[in-house]
Design brief:
520 residues; Nucleotidyltransferase, domain 5; 2 domains; five-stranded mixed beta sheet
């Protein structure tokens, strides 16, 4: 009988890290979660303390290791996946300021200056746009939420932090630094800086022209490593803190957008997955480099060597449910075992269409399928008859309407329809939300078993493939499904009508949101 080997998998989400001991075949033996707060400030600032990340990771790791179900000697690697599009200013082996995470939009004014020019299309200088798209596969967003915007914001508004930083790292790459003492970025994690030439996926490099255009000191950017590289051995200090064996290999890992698809088993070209977490996206691998700038979709380097994937993101999904609970006091069925199960029970018993109430889920602006950080959430068509239950159902449906909006452009980007989507992320625990997506999207939704653990499985599969325990084409068969949700034709008719109005609400109100929320 062969001995089962394990990876210590770390998945740093916005709400905090999940840490698991996952077999190289994808079996999650143990896992734990620790919450980390976010720090909100004026004008779109959203930060986290990287020391809180590390504290939470060491706490969760000690917990799963100390349970003793996996022998420490059977843990053969460490792999990290983490929230993407964040920026940690680093000097030496640690941070010199808080992380600006993917929700932080304070760099929007810097992007107006960087992206614009005398001959412009949709706010982009035509010559700059051609250079970005040709080399990177995309371009900096106007919303100010890309790392390039974060770094320029620090340069111009917090010059002491910019000066103190020796290097700026993505969250995943910062955690790798804490694990190994090596500062480096993967070909995949660096992509949203928009300064790399991604035309040859075997040799992604910084582009001198794009570096000059960015205004960022090249010396403050990390060395680049292949996506499937072994970054280095686990350091003695990190091993002691985590309770692991010193020297086991730490793989490069990957951002959460990448690991979710792999953990869903969607590794073949055009095999789609739907992620429902704090944010949301619909993605697939594609065999080409391509860009749809106007809808925020680009083919960027995948975590799988030599592969591209369709990158996009919707800002708020599960965040809308959290907002219901924490800000509006809507807890759903209070007899449920958890508040989110309570929301589920309410959404399940309210009929489709909830009396015509429509929710727009733009609590933090939007990236895809429109790039507009001024957009905001709203309930439309309330009356004296509207109940709290109607509002809860409307939130579930509103997120799905936004997913349908994005799906149309993702399928156009891919050049073909995706008849089914594998659903992962915490929101995919909800059978009713999966069914709502099936009805709204008119697509079969495959509800992955233990969908909240997709990131842990995904980064484990990457480590296992690098270390020779499995091949990439074996991954789909190793991911189990909890259920399959088929579209219901009657509910689809209801949702078709509401979706048309949803799109009209955006067109009718987008200029109002700009006037109300722009910084004059």
């Amino acid at each position: 009988m062969s001995i089962e080997r394990f990876v210590l998998a770390i998945d740093l989400g916005t709400s905090g890290p999940k840490v698991g001991l996952v077999s190289t075949a994808g079996r999650v033996a143990e896992w734990s979660f620790e919450r980390v707060p976010i720090i909100l400030s004026a004008e779109g600032g959203v930060e986290q303390d990287p020391e809180e990340w590390w504290r939470a990771i060491t706490t969760a790791t000690r917990r799963v290791v100390d349970r003793g179900s996996v022998a420490v000697d059977d843990i053969v690697s460490v792999g990290v996946t983490a929230q993407w599009s964040g920026t940690v200013p680093v000097a030496g082996s640690n941070h010199v300021g808080n992380a600006l995470i993917w929700m932080d939009s304070r760099g929007a004014s810097e992007m107006r200056g960087l992206n614009g020019g005398p001959v412009s299309v949709s706010g982009y200088s035509v010559p700059k746009l051609f250079r970005w798209i040709r080399r990177t596969g995309g371009a900096p967003g106007h919303s100010g939420k890309d790392p390039i915007a974060h770094i320029l914001y620090l340069k111009h508004h917090q010059p002491e932090v910019y000066a103190a930083a020796e290097v700026f790292l993505e969250p995943k790459d910062y955690l790798n630094l804490r694990l190994t003492g090596v500062a480096a970025a993967g070909f995949d994690s660096i992509a949203l800086h928009w300064v790399t030439d991604n035309r040859d996926l075997t040799d992604v490099t910084y582009d001198p022209g794009l570096l000059r255009l960015s205004g960022i000191d090249p010396a403050k950017l990390p060395p680049l490593r292949p996506t499937d590289d072994v970054l280095g051995p686990l350091s003695a200090g990190a091993a002691a803190e985590l309770g692991l064996v010193e020297g086991i290999p730490v793989v490069m890992g990957t951002p959460d957008t990448h690991s979710a698809g792999i953990g869903a088993g969607a590794v073949r070209d055009f095999q789609g997955h739907l992620y429902l977490g704090t944010s949301s996206w619909i993605s697939c691998h594609v065999p080409f480099k391509k860009t749809d700038l106007f809808h925020g979709i680009g083919a960027l380097p995948s975590a799988i060597p030599g592969r591209y994937f369709a990158a996009n993101e919707q800002e708020s999904a599960g965040a809308c449910l959290t907002y219901l609970v924490e800000n509006l006091g809507l807890h759903g069925d209070t007899d449920a075992s958890s508040v989110y199960q309570g929301l589920d029970r309410v959404a399940e018993r309210v009929p489709a269409g909830n009396s015509g109430v429509i929710f727009t889920p733009w609590l933090n602006g939007e990236r895809s399928p429109v790039d507009d950080h001024h957009l905001r959430a709203a309930f439309f068509n309330q009356s004296l008859d509207t109940t709290a239950d109607d509002l809860i159902r409307a939130v579930f449906e509103g997120v799905a309407f936004n997913s349908r909006w994005l799906l149309g452009y993702v399928e156009k980007f891919a050049g073909r329809p995706m008849p089914e989507l594998r659903a992962v992320g915490g929101g995919a625990n909800s059978a009713v939300w999966c069914q709502i997506h099936a009805d709204v999207l008119d697509r079969r939704i495959l509800q992955v078993k233990d969908p909240i653990l997709a990131g842990l499985r995904g980064v484990t599969f990457l480590a296992a493939a690098k270390l020779g325990y499995l091949d990439y084409d074996e991954i789909p068969a190793k991911v189990e499904m909890a259920d399959v949700h088929e579209p219901d034709p009657e509910r689809r008719q209801i949702y078709d009508r509401l979706y048309r109005e949803y799109r009209k609400l955006h067109r009718a109100n987008r200029k109002i949101y700009t006037r109300l929320n722009r910084a004059d």
